[in-house]
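Batch manifest, entry 17 of 40.
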Amino acid sequence: MAIYEPPPAGGDIVLREVAGNIVGFPQGGEREVGYWIGRPYWGRGVATAALRMFLGHERTRPLFAHVATHNAGSIRVLEKNGFVRCGEEQGWPDAEGEVIDEFVFRLG
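Output type: structure tokens
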């Protein structure tokens, strides 16, 4: 079991176990960010804080992110980090073969 310590005011989060991942990658001539956070860490500020720290290292702007339209938690993570919704498109099919509608977000 992981131990999560809430960040002090203005400080970094502390996890004693991997909670997920964040990646930056080129896609179609643009730079994108993607992340995955394990369910035990949802709703605890982990994704928001981790993305904030990642953005301190990933300085490419504009930076884009795609998120399923039904994923309210991930949409909020992007908005808290300054991303603004700039479009909507269909993403890749999910495990059941259903095409997922996605919002496109942009930072900078």
